[in-house]
Design a protein that fits this description.
By secondary structure, the protein is α/β, with parallel strands linked by helices. α5 packs across α11. The longest helix has 21 residues.
Length: 340
């Protein structure tokens, strides 16, 4: 692992005491279900529809092989955008802030007595590893990670508008070409000033704050996902924390790849925490000697065109056709026979 990878892994590795935000829905995480969480709308926003707000969106966990990808959204009155987030609380891209600082900022956002709680509303979309892989493996046209990301962003923003928040400006960290992405969003939200840019999380405080919401939620989700493996430590099977166990969840993290190699199931591979559509997983499965190999037969065009009724005996088909004909004339004869 080179110096860049080491620094990246260190920044992406949660703290042992990561703040467990309200966006952590344990049941959904352990079952592998994606879900959305919204905070309450701040009273100073909900009580006055004339208050104009700025909104930022960013994600965390796009590249890991373990754990969810999380989209974070944060909005607040436009007048407090820079003074509150940048000047007072020094928000920056969550990948630049230390894990401890990220966790502390998120705790302030969720604490009712703080100015962040009183001014900011936020939301997260937790996209589970299971659902990401399932969508990417869809047989009838792949649902790419980019497409999933765009849809998650749009739905989060729509939810905020549906709550009656007067959003005037939106800032988003780009996926792919920022110009194309921005035009798409402008068609959906034509009355709002939208800016899509590279490194938006380090340019716009609201995106930086959204980044923190996303990253801390992912950190806590990683810890929650590790619970089934921690429980087995009581039986003497494992005795390490999730950080010592699978680390940051990134393929470049040796803790992660080592954990994957040690905990591979010969039939199922791994659990809901794993993104099976990642090349890392495919390579490990191919290389592991004990993994069961399954080959699915390829159907030709004729086989694909077969109907379920083709498997019934001809006599049964005749009976079905006869009954269908009798039912068709049960109440009356065809129009053609009565009129002509």
């Amino acid at each position: 692992m080179d110096e860049f990878d080491s620094q990246h892994v260190a920044q992406e590795t949660p703290t042992d005491d990561v703040f467990i935000a309200p966006s952590i829905h344990e049941g959904n995480i352990l079952s592998g279900r994606s879900y959305t969480h919204h905070s309450a709308v701040p009273e100073l926003v909900s009580n006055d529809v004339a208050v104009e707000c700025v909104l930022g969106v960013d994600e965390a966990g796009r590249g890991p092989v373990l754990g969810p990808m999380v989209y974070g959204l944060l909005y607040l009155p436009l007048a407090a955008h820079h003074s509150l987030l940048a000047d007072t609380h020094h928000f920056d891209d969550s990948k630049v802030l230390t894990p401890t600082v990220r966790s502390s900022l998120m705790q302030k956002i969720c604490t009712p007595t703080t100015d962040l709680y009183q001014n900011c509303g936020w939301a997260t979309r937790v996209m589970s590893a299971r659902d990401i892989s399932s969508d990417m493996f869809k047989p009838a046209g792949k649902y790419s990670l980019n497409a999933q990301s765009v849809d998650a962003t749009i739905e989060l923003i729509k939810d905020v508008f549906a709550k009656g928040v007067n959003v005037k400006e939106i800032y988003i960290d780009t996926i792919g070409n920022p110009t194309i992405y921005q035009k798409k969003l402008e068609r959906i939200f034509p009355t709002t000033l939208i800016t899509v840019a590279k490194k938006a999380d380090s340019l716009f405080p609201c995106v930086s704050a959204a980044s923190v919401c996303a990253k801390v939620t992912r950190d806590a989700a990683l810890e929650t996902s590790y619970q089934p493996y921690s429980l087995s430590s009581a039986l003497g099977v494992k005795s390490v924390s999730f950080i010592e166990g699978w680390g940051s969840g990134y393929p470049s993290d040796t803790r992660c790849t080592t954990w994957l190699k040690k905990h591979i199931d010969p039939v199922f591979g791994w659990g809901n925490e794993c993104r099976f559509s990642w090349a890392t997983v495919e390579n490990l499965l191919e290389a592991h000697e004990t993994v069961a190999k399954v080959q699915w037969p390829l159907l030709n065009d004729d086989e694909q065109a077969m109907r379920v009724t083709d498997f019934f005996p001809n006599a049964s088909n005749n009976i079905i056709e006869k009954e269908s004909s009798e039912l068709a004339g049960w109440y009356s004869k065809p129009v053609a026979e009565e009129v002509f």
